[in-house]
Amino acid sequence: MPVFAAKASGGVVVDVDGNSFIDLGAGIAVLNVGSSAPLVAAAVAEQADAFTHTCFQVTPYEGYVALAEKLNSLVPGDLERRSFFLNSGAEAVENAVKVARSATGRQAVVAFDHAFHGRTLMGMSLTAKAAPYKRTFGPLAPEVYRLPYSYPYRCSAGASYEECGPACAEAAITAMDRQIGGDRIAALVIEPVLGEGGVIVPGDGFLQSLSQYCAEHGIVFVADEVQAGFARTGRWFASEHSGIVPDIVTTAKGLGGGMPIAGVTGRADLMDSVHPGGLGSTFGGNPVACAAALAAIEEVERGGLVEKAQRIGETFSEKLRPLLEECQPVGDVRVAGAMAAVEFVSDRGRKTPDPAAASRVLARCHEEGVIALKAGTFDNVVRILPPLVIGEDLLLEGLDVIEKAIRAV
Ligand SMILES: *Cc1c(COP(=O)(O)O)cnc(C)c1O
């Protein structure tokens, strides 16, 4: 947007000219606890005053350990866990793959259609979309295999909404068995809900079947929760909706309450198998960022933001689902807690993607002072990711603007 931010909090961004915008993007699912959340701002100030950096491998500090222990207890499953910290989601994914390869002695890595895993070499290699993420940046990392993701609206196996999960799981498992070999695969890296791919919630049974296949073949199941995690979908982690227990969970975006930090949290036996000094980062788990993350977790707990995300999801459903009946270009509406998407098509029968409609809706929203995001492999999805602390009135005001923009287009 052609505006420069001067101040932000609680779901409102004020620009340098004094205009206010309703923030339904949250800095791409980062500001779950809001911008400059009180506990986060105080923790950052206090830690900055005490010390700003030592490098954890050189001189450790309590905040890093406290955050690792907290994440170990929050991720799904009752397993012994270890965590370490980096600076970005892409680095978390890179390091999850390093752990999986080192622990298994295998090389192959499986990723999925419509996936986004960051912009580093391994990150963009695992990412599905060529433009803009991979174009002109090759060669890409070898030993990455792409399999179908369950996308019920556009099931690649041609199955119905109800059957898409099992059908796509079967296709993916057949490919792992026949094309790669289950005993050659180090890691399966997957978003439990696709974010950049267009808020795609996989069909029932999809994640469970893949998780079971991984367990049977010694494959490390990596849930990339960078976007869908941290209370966004109405659970601490999106994996919880399907009851799976990932071997490794990657976190970033919402983790630091607006400060840059990313986490890799994995089964203790996998994490401990890596040689000393093999993993690390100069800035990773910076003390100010760790203090911010601990405060952000407290904001989620004190503010009941996991439940709040569920309520935001109900509001989304009430406001957006009727558009499916009433507006021709709306092909699909998807809601996963406080993550929502409207997918635009120019022909409902053929489901022809209509990226121009999505662009026009977003342009109108921006003119009317609402920040929302573009997403999807076909660039035809409007994605809505409000801060979880947003007031009900402000959320409804923002959704009214989006609804009017959709009806106008
Ligand atoms: C944003 C994102 C990343 C990359 O995070 P960066 O901090 O931009 O490197 C990785 N995985 C998922 C699922 C993401 O949404």
Describe this structure in words.
- The protein is an alpha/beta fold.
- The chain folds into 2 domains: 131 residues, Aspartate Aminotransferase, domain 1 (Alpha-Beta Complex); 264 residues, 3-Layer(aba) Sandwich (Aspartate Aminotransferase, domain 2), CATH 3.40.640.
- The chain has 12 helices and 16 strands.
- A hairpin with a 4-residue loop joins β2 and β3.
- The longest helix has 22 residues.
- It starts with a strand and ends with a helix.
- It binds pyridoxal-5'-phosphate (PLP).
Give a brief description.
This protein is α/β, with parallel strands linked by helices and 409 residues long. It contains twelve helices and 16 strands. It binds pyridoxal-5'-phosphate.
List keywords for this structure.
409 residues; alpha/beta; Aspartate Aminotransferase, domain 2; 7-stranded mixed sheet; 5-stranded antiparallel sheet; 19% strand; binds pyridoxal-5'-phosphate
How can the largest sheet be summarized?
7 strands, mixed
Q: Which structural class fits the helix and strand makeup? A: alpha/beta
- Report how far apart the termini are: 19 Å
Number of helices: 12
Q: Can you name the CATH architecture of the largest domain?
A: 3-Layer(aba) Sandwich
Shape: globular
Number of domains: 2
CATH homology-level superfamily of the largest domain: Type I PLP-dependent aspartate aminotransferase-like (Major domain)
Q: Can you identify the CATH class of the largest domain? A: Alpha Beta
Averaging pLDDT over every residue, what do you get?
Answer: 97
Order of helices and strands: EEEHHHEHEHEHEHEEEHHHEEEHEEEH
- For the largest sheet, list the strands in their spatial order: 4-10-9-8-7-5-6
Unreliable stretches: none
Number of strands: 16
As a percent range, the share of strand residues is 15-25%
Q: List the bound ligands.
A: pyridoxal-5'-phosphate
CA radius of gyration:
21 Å
Oligomer: single chain
CATH topology tier name of the largest domain = Aspartate Aminotransferase, domain 2
